[in-house]
Amino acid sequence: MNLPVGKSVISAVTVGMLMSGCAYEAASFKEATASLKSETAATNSSFVADHIEGNVSNAWLESFGDETLMTLVDEAQKNNPDLRVSAARVEKAAALMRLSRSGLYPHLNIRGNFTDFDYTTRDKGYLVGSVAWEPDIWGRLTTLNRADEEVMKSVAADFAWARQSLAATTAKAWFALNRDKMLYDFMREIVKIQEKALYVAKEREEIGAGTKRDVHLVTAMAAESKQMLKNFETMQQVDTRSLETLVGRYPANAIEPKGLTKMPPELPASGIPADLLNRRPDLVAARYRVAAAFHNEKATELLKLPNITLRFDMGYDHVYDTVAKLIGNLFMPVYDAGRIDALIAAATADQKAAIANYRSVVLRAFREVENALAQEKQLKERYDFLMTTEREYKTAYDMTVETYEIGEGTIIDVLTAQSKWIDAGITRVNIANRRLANRVDLHLALGGGFDARPSWNLDYAKTHASEKK
Questions:
Q1: Averaged confidence pLDDT in the chain
Q2: Which of 279, 334, 405, 436 lies at a C-alpha separation of 20 to 30 Å from 360?
Q3: Got the DSSP string for 327-349?
Q4: Residue 128: how many CA atoms within 13 Å on its side-chain side?
């Protein structure tokens, strides 16, 4: 069938521009994918730091065998206000995505007006049903909707990362509180020993076996230990309040610390860093933001093309009795003083920033894994050395006390041995806590989930976000 020349030209231009838009979209997606691949092409096939090969598992909380820890993390997931903020962001992003999608479909509206009523004349008013639609000829609305979908996915990934980070923070806070209790109990025993030593020093001074100088030295040492005892008590109170705030109990002051949790067996770590890109929610979120930036830039460029809107009205009018009309509007930017070009430049800058951010997040993730793996070995070796150090200094201290009590050696020998034993004991407890905290950091860095579910799953993240309403 032959079309009039005017319609033929319009149809040809429309098809040509539509094909141009589709070609551009494919190129943009290809470019985005290539940009992401280029960020990981230079990564090693295996982590450099020493590690055990194996798959990264979820449910890392269970590996510590601490029921109190499991309970605290569960409370934090339910009650933490910061996590509720993150969940609300998921809800908002999902709502904005639905708003964007609504622009792809026709809208039905009813308009009416009534100004007067007179028995001798007709009603002075109208009631019209209106169907409005913007045909997405160039794909701009579809592209915007895809951008909003990617944003929603990135926010959901942020929420999943917030959940994992909260679990890790809660675990480390619990370990720190237990460390405080161990240090407090240790120093309380030291104070008792020193008070006994002070009594002995005074008795020896009275019978002439000791000196006033010995009494002053022991008194000073006991006072120093009491000051450290108070410091550990304050640390325990501060860390209790921090943990209670995380889990939603503050200010109950009802969390009872225990001894430090036993260190779990060495953790397998996948030898392919690229696997990290799909496990860690923060990396997934950064990847979604790159895709959103490319879609936004594409949609912004399409602002230069004509915009067509259609509206069909049908109803009652006091002048015409009934009305039925089709209205078409065409908008074509001709000169806007560089407004659209500026918007394109801004969208392009956002695109570059998203790619640069992805590079930064990926490199940081690999560095965190490498650091945590290296710390695993170093902290274990330090802890083993400190176990020996503390044991030997304690033995030396006991022997020094025995010789001092039979009149051999000086009080300075006793205090020196005791001081070394105390320092070794405190350092050992601190290193034990650092080992536990580093293990948590390693789980987090590798992207393993804290429960039995997948560490990153879009539907799972959205479901948990809805539970935080």
A1: 82
A2: 436
A3: EEEEE-----TTHHHHHHHHHHH
A4: 21
Q: Which of helix, strand or coil describes residue 111?
A: strand
Q: Tell me the per-residue pLDDT of 36-46, one tens digit each, with 9 for 90 and over.
A: 655 555 555 55
Report the DSSP beta bridge partners of residue 322.
316
State which amino acid sits at residue 274.
A
- The number of helix segments (H) and strand segments (E) in the chain equals 10, 4
Pick from 248-252, 257-261, 332-336: least confident: 332-336
Inter-residue contact 403 to 145 (CB < 8 Å): no
Q: Looking at residue 135, what DSSP letter applies?
A: -
Its pTM stands at: 0.82
- What is the pLDDT confidence band of residue 232, given thresholds at 50, 70 and 90? very high
CA distances from 108 to 102, 112, 131, 313, 317 (A): 12, 14, 5, 10, 18
In 248-280, which ranges are continuous DSSP H helix?
Answer: 276-279
| Per-residue pLDDT at 71 exceeds 70 | yes
Q: Long-range CB contacts (< 8 A, 24+ apart) of 97-105?
A: 97/145, 97/148, 97/149, 97/151, 97/152, 99/148, 100/141, 100/144, 100/145, 100/147, 100/148, 101/145, 101/148, 103/134, 103/141, 103/144, 103/145, 104/136, 104/141, 104/142, 104/145, 105/133
Q: Which two tokens stand for residue 386?
A: 């400190």
Residues 54-64 pLDDT 10s: 577 788 999 99
Any bridge partners for residue 316, and if so which?
A: 127, 322
Q: CA–CA separation, 279 vs 273, rounded Å?
A: 10
Is the pLDDT assigned to residue 222 strictly greater than 70?
yes
Give yes or no for a cis peptide into 251 (omega within 30° of 0). yes
Give whole-number Cα distances, 240 to 66, 174, 181, 235, 245, in Å.
18, 8, 11, 8, 9
- Amino acid in position 39: E
Which residues are CB-neighbours of 467 under 8 A, at least 6 positions away?
87
First CA to last CA distance, the chain: 59
Complete domains list, the chain, with CATH: 24-467 (1.20.1600.10)
Does 219 score more than 50 pLDDT? yes
463 pLDDT above the threshold of 90: no
